[in-house]
Design a protein that fits this description.
mainly alpha; elongated
């Protein structure tokens, strides 16, 4: 692994993975309070019903962390193949910061739902629902 690759993708990976952690942490709090049926992600809801909340969210956390490495790496590789400079608008920045921001907004929505602010939650979850 070259240092250039690490320097160009580490902050993108940390932002993207941090959003995944924030989303899952807020999902954990929301589901513990309101039950599995309150989870809107069908695949995650089914996984929690089969494995239990704790084990399903831990599994999702681990697989998501590993998957993020491949997503950011593949997007950076595509940028390199296409000759897109790292300081320009490129695929790995759009993927990391675009999807990462949607996941952070989803985390805010989960927290708002947990504290009973469903109207606020609807506003923050709009980008995720559109995606």
């Amino acid at each position: 692994m070259s240092l250039e690759f690490l320097a160009n993708t580490l902050s993108d990976y940390v932002y993207f993975t941090g959003s995944h952690y924030a989303d899952l942490a807020s999902t954990y709090i929301f589901v513990k309070r309101d039950g599995i049926a309150s989870e809107s992600h069908k695949g995650l809801r089914k996984l929690m019903q089969e494995m239990g909340e704790d084990k399903a969210l831990l599994t999702h956390l681990i697989l998501g962390t590993i998957g993020n490495v491949f997503l950011v790496g593949a997007a950076y590789g595509l940028d390199s193949l296409l000759g897109i400079q790292d300081n320009a608008l490129n695929i790995h920045h759009v993927q990391s910061y675009g999807l990462g921001t949607i996941k952070y907004l989803t985390a805010i929505s989960n927290i708002a739902n947990t504290y009973g602010y469903s109207k606020v939650a609807d506003i923050f979850s709009l980008p995720a629902r559109m995606y």
